[in-house]
Amino acid sequence: MLTLSAVSKNFGGLQVLDGLDMTVPEQGIFGLIGPNGAGKTTVFNLITGLLAPNDGAIEFYGQRLDRMAPHRITRCGVARTFQNLRLFREMTLSENILVALAAHPRSYALGALMPLRSYRAAERREAETAREFLAKVGLADKSEFLAGTLSYGEQRRLEIARALATEPKLLLLDEPAAGMNSAEKLLLMDEIVTLRESGLAMLIIEHDMRFIMGLCQQITVLNFGRVIAAGAPDEIRAHAEVIEAYLGRDETRSGSTL
CB–CB of 160/176 below 8 Å? Predict the structure, then answer.
C-alpha cells in the first residue's frame, strides 16, 4: 500500500531522516516508534505532503505522494491526526465532521445551487453521515456538544472521527493516546481494533509501549532518523539496539526487555 524508499530529510545541517525504507501493507495496525527526536512525526509530515523529502520516493498504490499537494494526498485516501489537537473548539462535534466532509469530492458543497428541497435533504444526509462517523468513536450521543466542552480523551477521539470522514484507506495516528487515562486508552484500543476489522490500515506513533505492543502486528523503530529494527512486538521488545535506544547500554547488557 505505502512504500517509502531511501527517504531523507534535513533542515539545514540537521539530518532528521537518513535513507528511510519502510512499507505499510494493506489492512492491519502498524507501529512507528522511537525516542524523542527520532524523526517519527517528520515521517507523517512527509507522507501527508506537509514537507517534501530531500531524497527518496513515497508511493501509495504506485502513486508518488511526494509530488502531490496535501489536499490531493487526502483524496488519494491518506488521513492523519496530529500530536497537538487541531479542532474547531467553538463548533459542535457534527460541524467538525462536516468540515471534513466538505473537503470530500462527494460532498454537497454546491448545495446552495440546488433546489431548496434537495438542499435540505442533502443537509439531513450529511448530518446523519456525521453522526455515523461520531458513532465509530463512541461520540454520537454528543454530536451537538461544542468540541471545546469535551474531555481531552474525547477530543482525541473526535479528531480521529474527523479524519475518518475523509474516507481514508490509510489512517496515520500521531500519539492518539497522549493525555488519556487508562480507561480511555482501553476504550480507544477497542475502537482501533474495530476500525481494523472494517478493512482500514493504520500507522500509529505512540510512546505508550503497552498501548502500541498490544495493538500492532508489526512495528518499525527509528533512532536518529534511521531504522534500527522492524518486526513483530515480541521481536521488538527483546531487540538489543531498541532497548539501548530507550533505556541505555547498561540495560542492554542486563538482558532487559521493553
Answer: yes
Closest CA to 26 of 1, 43, 51, 4: 1
Superfamily per CATH, domain 1-77+168-232: P-loop containing nucleotide triphosphate hydrolases (3.40.50.300)
CA dist 179 and 182 (Å) reads 10
Rg (CA), the chain: 20
pTM: 0.88
CA 26 to chain centre: 15
Q: Nine-digit cell at 160?
A: 480521529
**What single-letter amino acid sits at 182?**
S
What are the cell numbers at 56? Answer: 527518496
* pLDDT tens readout for residues 77-101: 999 999 888 899 999 999 999 988 8
Which strand (E) or helix (H) includes residue 220? strand 218-223
